Amino acid sequence: MQNGDDTPAAADTTKKPLPEEITKQSFRLKVWRHLETNGLAMFPRPVFNRIPNFKGAQEAAAKLAELDVFKNANTVKVNPDKPQEPVRAICLEQHKTLYVPVPRLQNGFLNRLVLPEGETGPAAIRKAVSRNGMETYGQPIGIEDTVSLDLVVMGSVAVSKEGYRIGKGRGYGDLEFGLMMHMKAIKPTTLVATTVHDCQVFDTLPAELFGPHDVPVDLIVTPTQVIETQRMSQRPGGILWHLLSNRRIQLMPILGQLREVEMLAGRACTLKEVDTDVEERTANRPRRPRRRTRSHKSQSEGEGNTTEGEEGKGGKPRRGRRRNSTKSKEGKEKDVKEEKPRRPKRPRPVIDFSVKISNISPNTRVRDLKQALSERGVKPQVMVWKGFRGFCFLHFFKPGPQKGEGDSAPAINMESVLAALAEMSVGGSGGGGGDGDERDDKPRLLSVEPAPPRQPRVPRHPPAQSDLQPDPQTNPQEVH
């Protein structure tokens, strides 16, 4: 073959892979990248592998609330993702019956959010619709309970005006819908709506990408428009067992419970043999046994946060001393030899950056600040609380090695944290100052600024005489 004939052939090979990229994942990546690169993404970030939170989510929720389909709905099911949090809040404000799925269907199915008696204010509603509040105020609903829904609000990564919807790729929304179909909670008049940014709406999506398990949407609500879709596909009639593997059933106990009911009723529930289900990527990773390096309270308080008292106690736990004496009898010497060697100590996490929050009211509690941080999607690994002095420090560790895009914990940086905490206010919790001044009970606008790098701790062993000489460049009064 001549050289001139080789060139067109090489050009053809570069064009062949292009049709293979037209997948659901290619549309997800297109949307995620557009939101991130154009400053449209909101916390939690990055939005990869999530139902993305976007600028204008509040406006989209308000526009949905203006529709008759929302005004006339008494029972509403809303997904637990961050961009639909304003929709959940409006449902409680208008005294609608609100159902929220259990995240990832790991510990149940639905929760009915019920506010505590006497707590119906905006602060109580914001707390109830947050991630922690949905677990605290949620009343579990099983597949054996009777539920009738007027409106279903789903989160989406991409949607089309034809009614096709693409989620984050884990199948939770489709499985939730199938379970609700089994409960007969979905009526023919039940509408399915989604709130998204305008850039997430496509005129058309390839029909061949969608199967009988994909849930179509009837309404698309953005911050600027309301779209009634053509709905080119039918709703799934229930759980399609032949599309699920046994491992997916084990990950979601509610599916196993439903399968037992279906099998007792004589229905076919054959699972597929080839395991191609998509689930949490960390599910298959073996978990290392936790070593208790601190008290139980410090490990469970907050989400990976510690307070000043825990930080000051040091990283080493108190353990009973084990004395291995080789001077005793032969039996004891044998026991010493059979003891397993101790595991090497894990390296101490390295702090990537720190943030200082000041202008804190003396009456503000640490849990109030933690709640405010959680609502804004900021989760520091360590919090050093100096609230009685009007400030605190947030420390963020360096992320571990990434094995792929979105495969590890979402990376954060100083700029994103400062942007998330801008204009944050926290009010005092108490009766004000002793002199009758009530200013501390009002919300305070907190000052957020980068903190200097944290210095390493001083070793515990006694320093040598040479180390006791003062260093003219070191300030002994510096507080880390």
Report the biggest beta sheet as strand number plus sense, adding barrel if it closes: 8 strands, mixed
Query: What value does the average pLDDT take?
Result: 78
Low-confidence stretches: 1-11, 279-286, 295-316, 325-329, 403-408, 429-440, 465-480
Strand order in the sheet with the most strands: 4-3-2-1-5-8-10-11
Shape: globular
Helix content: 25-40%
- Rg from Cα: 28 Å
Strand content: 15-25%
Task: Please work out how many helical segments DSSP would assign.
Answer: 15
Distance between the termini: 73 Å
Structural class: alpha/beta
Number of strands: 17
Biased composition (Polar residues): 466-480
GO cellular component, one term: cytoplasm
Biased composition (Basic residues): 284-297, 315-326
Region (Disordered): 1-20, 277-352, 423-480
List descriptors.
about 475 residues; alpha/beta; eight-stranded mixed beta sheet; four-stranded antiparallel beta sheet; 15 helices; RNA binding
Give a verbal description of the structure.
A hairpin with a 4-residue loop joins strand 13 (382-386) and strand 14. The radius of gyration is 28 Å and the shape is globular. It is of the alpha/beta class. It has helices at 3-15, 24-37, 57-65, 68-71, 85-93, 122-128, 131-136, 172-182, 246-251, 253-264, 296-300, 308-312, 330-338, 366-375, 414-420; strands at 75-78, 97-101, 110-113, 138-141, 149-154, 158-160, 165-166, 186-195, 201-202, 219-221, 226-228, 351-358, 382-386, 391-397, 425-427, 443-445, 447-451. The N and C termini lie far apart (73 Å). Helix content is 26%, strand content 16%. The strands form 4 sheets. The chain has an 8-stranded mixed beta sheet, with helices on both faces.
